[in-house]
Design a protein that fits this description.
91 residues; mainly alpha; 3 helices
Length: 91
């Protein structure tokens, strides 16, 4: 059961990374034009989500509890940082 949840978790992170990568040059949320600094940050967050998805995939494959906790904490930190960054550019 936990393995399937971690696989879904990794896929969800990959979808979010693809969204960020696809919207670097197009509309992002309410921004019609994406400034260069936002584009750079979106790229960094996308690669961070990809790395976190890899860790989650490894955690699903190995079933090591410590790695699962690391994957969850890593994703939470990345998501928090992204959530704190977005209002800075939208406001």
């Amino acid at each position: 059961m936990i393995t399937s949840l971690f696989i879904c978790f990794a896929l969800l992170q990959l979808v979010l990374a693809l969204y960020l990568l696809n919207h670097r040059h197009e509309r992002f949320l309410t921004l019609k034009e994406v400034p260069a600094n936002v584009r750079h940050d979106l790229t960094l967050f996308a690669f961070a989500f990809i790395a976190s998805a890899v860790v989650a995939g490894l955690a699903a494959a190995t079933g090591i509890g410590g790695m699962q906790i690391v994957a969850l904490i890593l994703a939470a930190l990345i998501t928090t940082a992204l959530g704190l960054m977005i209002p800075k550019y939208l406001g």
